[in-house]
Amino acid sequence: xxxxxxxxxxxxxxxxxxxxxxxxxxxxxxxxxxxxxxxxxxxxxxxxxxxxxxxxxxxxxxxxxxxxxxxxxxxxxxxxxxxxxxxxxxxxxxxxxxxxxxxxxxxxxxxxxxxxxxxxxxxxxxxxxxxxxxxxxxxxxxxxxxx
Length: 147
Description:
alpha/beta; 4-stranded mixed sheet
């Protein structure tokens, strides 16, 4: 199982989107998580790419945030939960084991509420096998913060 996670910093530009898709196709990942796609929910069709896999998204009404998951057709998967705030929860079956794949794009503000809601949802689902991928929008060492 090959997982790939990238903060893409926008896919509204058609040439950037095409180039990104070509690079991602070469990676041959089973699951791809892209954060900060900056595509409006009504423009989700821009993100369709059968070569990358089935598309699952958490997109906003405006051109900001946004997280998407591409999951290859041959991966047994089921959407468990998604919202417009940057959370997608998928159940995948790998070697007869159910694993919860969680794709996130955490906000820079109000993170406590974001992660509290995520934690509550994970407890509600109750799957002990969890893989959280995405952009936590946090730093491990304040001295290394370049922003």
